């Protein structure tokens, strides 16, 4: 099939950037979205042009590197998948596809479609950990965890930190990511000693990094490739208010 | 960072201020709507209720004392609500300096997307509403009692006033449809199991409130109450 791609091109952090149109012919419906971009880049290189820079790594939906806003939706139209898991069979001949990077002050563009997501690392550094004694590994079932808590914690722990929640949020908020970590660590016994400090420090760091505030629109959870539920944000709110001694 | 500072400065703390002040205002709206229902018992009952509001808790409180306490509380809630909303809206604007060329709403309801501008419409309406029916400055019958003002206001010839009133009430309904559930979520009282139910309650309450407020001009325009 033949497509028209409109892609955000930006030479570097200082460049203003612009949407550039590229026609691409003979795209196979069996290609993944990223393979389609690989084909475009090969063509650009042969034509002596600069290839489009985009983030990718595992290409199987677990690393959280790929990060494209496709026709206005982070990770494209397919629910609960990353960009690399999206295939061209979802498009038809003659389609125009707009491809943009995550848009947030906290995620500045490095080049073209690649953004700097260090801000997420800083939120993790502020409290996304537990303190545990070193030494030999403890027995797997030494500390009992209720099944329901373990399931909810595990569901939250599937967050791959891709940043789609921020990209989709009308407020540019990183609350779903932060809430996933709060839930993941706050529901298991190992996370209890630092539970209060964790939520205060992680929310404080989140706010300092110029992310917006959450308004409960639910855009984040709709695009999340791991389907992190909105209730994690409710849990973060509850923990935050409790830790603030309200 | 101390805990009290973290509360008012953080996005979550500001949301909590918005939620608590919002719930106070919803409480007021409910009793306001309930009081309005007096109109169906006749103009005298309506005026009597209005008079009672001025004498309630006297002589412990002076004449209109309760009313003024309520007004001060409501004003504080309105200021807190607008302060947190403005602060978060400015932060949201700052958080995305470069806009998307192609953007489509994924899931957020119409109500959720229009909270900010809807809020502005509601504020403008409240100002008009007070000048019209409380102080009487913009009312065609400023010297009349509450019921006289009301029936003068929604006279068929002044259809545009009625239309604005209806628009404002519907805007409030949309605002509450998202706002009510959002407040519960912000205060950490929602979860995945309750979410659908709570959203249903928010919708049901908003529709009920709209129906109560709209029934008054409807009754006047159709001549149901005279």
Q: Any overview of this molecule?
A:
The complex is a heterodimer of chains A (246) and B (226). By secondary structure, chain A is of the alpha+beta class. Chain A has two domains: 3-110, Beta-grasp domain (Ubiquitin-like (UB roll)); 117-131 and 142-243, Alpha-helical ferredoxin (Fumarate Reductase Iron-sulfur Protein, Chain B, domain 2). Chain A is 33% helix and 11% strand. Chain A has helices spanning 33-46, 118-125, 147-157, 164-168, 175-186, 195-208, 219-223, 231-243, and strands spanning 3-9, 18-24, 69-70, 73-74, 96-100, 109-111, 114-115. In chain A, the strands form two sheets. In chain A, strands 2-1-5-3-4 form a five-stranded mixed beta sheet. Chain A has a two-stranded antiparallel ribbon with strand order 6-7. The longest helix of chain A is centred in the first third of the chain and has 14 residues, at 33-46. Chain A is elongated, with a radius of gyration of 20 Å. In chain A, 47% of the residues are buried. Chain B has 226 residues and is an all-alpha fold. Chain B has a single domain (10-92, 107-221), classed as Fumarate reductase/succinate dehydrogenase, transmembrane subunit (3 helical TM bundles of succinate and fumarate reductases, Up-down Bundle), CATH 1.20.1300. In chain B, 74% of the residues lie in helices and 0% in strands. Chain B has nine helices and no strands. Chain B has helices at 3-9, 11-36, 43-55, 65-95, 110-113, 115-134, 146-153, 159-186, 192-221. The longest helix of chain B is centred in the middle third of the chain and has 31 residues, at 65-95. The chains are: A alpha+beta (246), B mainly alpha (226). The interface between A and B is large, with 56 and 47 residues.
């Amino acid at each position: 099939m033949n497509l028209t791609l409109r892609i955000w091109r930006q030479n570097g952090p200082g460049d203003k950037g612009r949407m550039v149109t590229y026609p691409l012919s003979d795209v196979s419906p069996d290609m993944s979205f990223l393979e389609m971009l690989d084909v475009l880049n090969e063509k650009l290189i042969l034509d002596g042009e600069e290839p489009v820079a985009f983030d990718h790594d595992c290409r199987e939906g677990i690393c959280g590197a790929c990060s494209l806003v496709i026709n206005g939706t982070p990770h494209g139209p397919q629910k609960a998948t990353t960009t690399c898991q999206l295939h061209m069979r979802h498009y038809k001949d003659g389609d125009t596809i707009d491809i943009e990077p995550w848009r947030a002050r906290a995620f500045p563009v490095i080049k073209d479609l690649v953004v700097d997501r260090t801000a997420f690392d800083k939120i993790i550094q502020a409290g996304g950990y537990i303190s545990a004694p070193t030494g030999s590994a403890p027995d797997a079932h030494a500390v009992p965890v209720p099944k329901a808590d373990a399931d909810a914690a595990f569901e939250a722990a599937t967050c791959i930190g891709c940043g789609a929640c921020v990209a989709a949020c009308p407020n540019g908020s990183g609350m779903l990511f932060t809430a996933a970590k709060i839930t993941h660590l706050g529901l298991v016994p190992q996370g209890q000693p630092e539970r209060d400090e964790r939520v205060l420090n992680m929310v404080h760091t989140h706010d300092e990094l110029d992310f917006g505030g959450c308004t409960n629109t639910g855009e984040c959870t709709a695009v999340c490739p791991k389907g992190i539920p909105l209730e994690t944000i409710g849990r973060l709110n509850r923990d935050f208010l409790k830790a603030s001694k309200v | 960072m101390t805990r009290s500072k973290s509360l008012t400065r953080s996005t979550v703390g500001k949301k909590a201020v918005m939620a608590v002040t919002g719930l106070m205002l919803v409480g007021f709206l409910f009793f306001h709507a309930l009081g309005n229902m007096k109109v169906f018992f006749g103009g005298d009952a309506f005026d009597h209720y209005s008079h009672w509001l001025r004498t309630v808790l006297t002589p412990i409180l002076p004449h209109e004392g309760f009313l003024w306490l309520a007004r001060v509380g409501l004003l504080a809630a309105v200021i807190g609500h607008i302060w947190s909303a403005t602060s978060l809206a400015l932060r949201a604007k700052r958080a995305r300096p470069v806009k998307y060329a192609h953007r489509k709403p994924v899931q957020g309801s119409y109500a959720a997307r229009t909270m900010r501008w809807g809020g502005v419409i509601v504020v403008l309406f409240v100002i008009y509403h007070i000048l019209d029916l409380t102080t009487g400055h913009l009312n065609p019958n400023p010297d009349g009692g509450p019921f006289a003002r009301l029936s003068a206001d929604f006279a068929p010839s002044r259809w545009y006033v009625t239309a604005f009133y209806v628009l404002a009430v519907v805007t409030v309904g949309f605002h509450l449809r998202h706002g009510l559930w959002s407040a519960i979520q912000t205060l950490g009282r929602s979860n995945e199991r309750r979410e659908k139910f709570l959203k249903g309650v928010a919708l049901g309450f908003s529709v009920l409130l709209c129906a109560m407020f709209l029934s008054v001009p409807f009754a006047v325009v159709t001549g149901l109450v005279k």
